Amino acid sequence: MGIFVAGPPVGAAPLPTTVSCPTQTCVVQPVGGPVAVDPAGFTLDVDWSPQLMKLLGIQQNDWWSLVFFFTFTGTHDGTEHFGAVTLLDDNGDPVTDVNPQFDDTNIVGSTIEARYQIFNNGADLQTFLVQGLQLGASDGDGVRTLEWTEARFYPAALVDGAVPEPAAMLLLGLGLFGAGAVRRRSL
Q1: Which residues contact 83 (CB under 8 A, 6 or more apart)?
Q2: What percent of the chain has pLDDT over 90?
Q3: pLDDT tens digits for 106-116?
Q4: Nearest to residue 50, comparing CAs of 19, 26, 78?
Q5: What is the b/e burial string over 113-136, where b = at least 16 CB atoms within 10 angstroms of the residue's CB?
Q6: 39 and 112 in contact (C-beta within 8 Å)?
Q7: Where do the structural domains in the chain lie, given as residue ranges?
Q8: Distance separating alpha carbons of residues 5 and 123, to the nearest angstrom
Q9: Selection from 70, 80, 150, 152 nearest residue 113 by Cα
Q10: Which DSSP symbol is given to 81?
Q11: What is the mean pLDDT of residues 12-36?
Q12: What per-residue confidence (pLDDT) applies to 168?
């Protein structure tokens, strides 16, 4: 499991996810839909390989936005108990020239938005490659159930040549099949 609840299993695999990047926002979602986490305490270990995202270049001392979305039942007490975030490169190593910091939470109906700012500690307009993340010890005080639904990065994009999402592959396959059928008829 990629979700660790009260004492993670040793050597647990990261949670598989997919990434789609409409405009300059990349949306990371767990494969198979929302994932239940223990509201009393959890961590996330997330991997979207073989897809590779790039945080688009910004000025030094400026920041990227990262927002985690959770749905919940019960009554959220308004506290902000979200852990540190570590971004991982395509080797699974921490991206060292960025500094993710928790900002605040926003409660909208039954959704918690945990907002982070990722500060650029590197050179101006440097692009950072990211293929996963780890969210440190967090909890959802006052809620009965909690599910992680997605995370959004801005500004970001998929790396050229990165593996497209399954729906795009299906459309590509149908297009190639149609082109082959048209070619056979013309022979």
Answers
A1: 43, 102, 135, 136, 137, 138
A2: 58
A3: 999 999 999 99
A4: 19
A5: ebbbebbbebeeebebebbbbbbe
A6: no
A7: 3-161
A8: 37
A9: 70
A10: -
A11: 93
A12: 43
Q: Could you tell me the CA-to-CA distances from 124 to 61, 117, 118, 157 in Å, in that order?
A: 8, 17, 14, 18
In total, the chain counts a number of residues equal to 187
Q: Which two tokens stand for residue 98?
A: 């960025």
Q: What are 53-81's pLDDT values in tens digits?
A: 999 877 666 789 999 999 999 888 777 88
Tokens standing for residue 10: 């040793």
Residue 175 CB-half CA count within 13 A:
6
Element counts in the chain: helices (H) and strands (E): 1, 14
**CA–CA separation, 54 and 155 (whole Å):** 9
101 in Cβ contact with 117 (< 8 Å):
yes
Look-up: residue for tokens 């801005």?
154
Which residues, in sequence order, are CB contacts of 152 under 8 Å at separation 6+? 25, 26, 27, 28, 65, 66, 67, 69
Burial label for 51, CB within 10 Å (0-12, 13-18, 19+), is buried
Rg for the chain, CA atoms, rounded: 19
Q: Token pair 């994009």 is at which residue? A: 157
Q: Which of 39, 85, 42, 47 is nearest to 66 (CA)?
A: 85
**In this structure, are residues 100 and 116 in contact, taking their beta carbons and an 8 Å threshold?**
yes
